[in-house]
Amino acid sequence: MRLLLLCWRSAMSRCTPLMIVQVVMTVWQDDFSWTGVLEKILAAAVAWGTVGLAVAVVAWLLLYRRARAAGIELSAQALDERQAHLLWETRPDEGGLDRVRERLTSSERAYLLLEPARDELTFRWRPGRRADHTVRASLTFDALAGTVLVDVRGGEGHLGVAGLTGAPAFVAVSQIAVAVGLTGRKDGRYERV
Q1: φ, ψ (nearest 5 deg) of residue 134
Q2: 75-190: what fold?
Q3: Tell me, what's the pLDDT at 137?
Q4: CA separation for the pair 51, 37 (Å, rounded)
Q5: Which residues face 83 on adjacent strands?
Q6: Taking the model in full, what pTM does it have?
């Protein structure tokens, strides 16, 4: 519920300028009276509030679908600029780091793939359709535990799910998990970082 309210607040922050322009234009065109202005402001607030709620519900459903596909817990922190999730390999017996590196290089969303350490990969990931909207990501492997720490930093103000700001990092974590074969669940429970 808290995530839905955060999505609604983000959607309303994008709808408010349109609402203000609409109210000013209708007041300008009609006769100016205080009761007329108040009625127009109230009608616009209700209408745009409903539109903002519809956008928030669509964004929440899209985030839920992505989280479920990746096996990542959906919480109120999904709109944060930085996402760090501890994920497990779905098939740990198939080569781990080498398999993930191959899948990343074959993905059209990943580029600038670097290996600063033996058990770490850093790269840029494109969570949306535009090539200039990317996030910074890193994968750190723990071979003994069979886990991978996925750390994604947005911070560039790009739009994410349904036009909401702040969601690209969560979308990228979900896409990376699905693309390289990682899951957020181990024995039916989630692990928080």
Answers
A1: -130, 165
A2: TATA-Binding Protein (3.30.310)
A3: 92
A4: 21
A5: 152
A6: 0.79
